[in-house]
Amino acid sequence: MEIAQIAVLVVISLVNALLPSQWRKWVLFVISLIIIYWLQPSLSIRWLDYTLPSIIIGISVITWWVVASREKKISPITALSREDSTSLVIILAIILLLTIPRYFDFPIALTSRPPEIWQVITIIIALIIILPLGSYLISFRWTAILLLLIILAFLIIIKSEVLSIHLSVFLRQQTGQDTGIASVIDIQWLGFSYVAFRLIHTIRDWQTGILPDLSLREFITYVIFFPAFTAGPIDRVERFLNDFRAIEKYNPFEANRFTEAAARICIGLFKKFFIADSLAIISLSHTSIDQALSAPALWLMLYAYALRLFFDFSGYTDIAIGIGILWGIQLPENFNRPYLKNTITTFWQSWHMTLSSWVRTYVYSPLSRQLLRSRYKNHVNIILLISTLATMLTIGIWHGITLPFIVWGLWHGIGLFIHKVWSDHTRAWLRRLRQHPGRDAAWRWTGVILTFHFVVLGWVWFVSSDLSSAFRLFLALFGVAP
Amino acid sequence: MDEQTVRENLRTFIVKDLIRDPDYDLADDEGVVTGGLIDSFSLAQIGVFVEQAFGVYIPDPDLTVAKMDTLNQMVARILRDIQ
Fold first, then answer.
1. Prior bond to A233 cis, omega within 30?
2. Is residue A282 part of a domain?
3. Chain A residues whose beta carbon lies within 8 Å of the beta carbon of residue B44
4. Which end of chain A, N or C, is less packed with Cβ atoms under 10 Å?
């Protein structure tokens, strides 16, 4: 997000705080729906920057319809409560109203390329006919599995450069545009990586019977809550609901709350737009890799890159949390001094915490348990290795399906595995070491330095566009000319 | 199955199979993960042990450090589903 966009979001949040408290849930719902169109970058493929946010809303509504169902084979229209009906009407009205800029010039462009209104109406009518019919043919259980597959397919496409270009070519053919200039930038789907994980979390929790009851308004606001829409944090729905349901009693101008929000936003802006942007000048990048003259210069650039990543992302999280506080939603923290942790395990418990916690809950834990129940249950270390690598591979490809991201994930997976085996063998010794504060502190700081450098060297994979440039960079860092 | 049986079975499993120090005196309110005695992989092992020993399935989102850090928390969670 740009600083101007953040300023607009802060102003909207402050104006909301002045409104009567009973309006706030509806205002947050409506604002979030509109803002996801506004934040979506303009795309060169016709209708796409309108269609992508609309798909997010469409999938979210269908997911809610599945996970909120208590009885099978119900008609979704007659089963709707008054609040749900109103929410649905508002969603449809916003989707239709956002096609109007096609016909008139608006001072604020929320979407740059909406389709014709009749095209949108046709699709909505088709969905209204197909969905109830579908509910008679397919059980909600299977619809949930189908939804999971669709969400994963979308994720894989946007994370894969090759598939994104193929999709771009296909869409350009459909809209009669030049396929020769198809590129990965054509499919820049803002927020979907985070939306996908929220939707998967709700579907999986519904499947295991622990998802709380929630209205359409609550569900949609959770999935697309605008401060966390672009880059998280990935909240849990039951935690979000606690705050959302108490919004009417919340006073954003209560001294400590307002000060906290203002401080988080200011700190976030400073971290992101001053520290991170300043570090960007000297930090490593795709283009600057070959410009370093010596190994020490490269190390400096790599340290700057590591710090820049932290300040940029944690700064963004601070801003999101600060704006969330203005609405009465306390988003979860994403960072807890990660570069000061003394083991790779505690690093991952404090770096992008909501993502690592999500992957631990929905990949690591179920996979480990499944393997521990299998006939290979006695091979604990092999189970641990498989689960850890699968988990870190998921985090790697979540950033992009490329070889460097895959290797980066495996790098951390292997690091975590080695640390776990090591700590299993040294746990008793470490407990005894705690009785000697001096030696314990020395050991801890040695751990901090080693962990920091393991993570920093891991960023070499992260920053490199391909494996050969990563290898060259490793050699250059250790003074070996490529 | 009564609370005491659940508690002692679980304590024995954690001390013997996870901490691997049968003489360790594990307190009821001691943080086993936050105290560095076990890790998140051990929580998965506890999840499977609870399924097999007590017939209680703890969903993955409940198998976290925040919810399963002490023996008291674990026993309360298991008894909720046994009863």
1. yes
2. no
3. 364-365, 368-369, 372, 387
4. C
Task: Verify whether residue A399 is a known catalytic residue.
Answer: yes
Q: Vertex A276, ends A271 and A281: CA angle to 5°?
A: 150
pLDDT of residue B79: 92
Active-site pick, A201, A352, A379, A399 = A399
- ipTM metric: 0.90
The structural architecture, per CATH, of the domain B3-82 is Orthogonal Bundle (1.10)
Tens-digit pLDDT profile for residues A180-226: 888 888 888 999 999 999 999 999 999 988 899 899 999 999 999 99
Q: Inspect the interface and report whether the beta carbons of B39 and A345 lie closer than 8 Å.
A: yes
List pLDDT tens digits, range A71-118.
544 555 556 788 888 999 999 999 988 888 777 776 666 777 788 888
**Does some domain include residue A198?**
yes
Tokens of A282: 């000297």
Written as six digits, the tokens of A171 are 């869409």
Residues B60, A420: C-beta atoms closer than 8 Å: no
Q: Does A423 touch chain B (CB under 8 A)?
A: yes
CA distance B28 to chain A (A): 19
Q: Do residues A130 and A243 share a domain?
A: yes
The answer for A251, left when phi > 0, alpha when psi is -120 to 50, beta otherwise, is beta
Nearest to A365 among B21, B36, B63 (CB): B63
Of A357, A420, A430, nearest to B41 by CB-CB distance is A420
Collect all residues with Cβ–Cβ distance below 8 Å to A299 and sequence separation of at least 6.
A477
Distance from CA of A139 to the nearest CA of B (A): 23
pLDDT at A137 over 60: yes
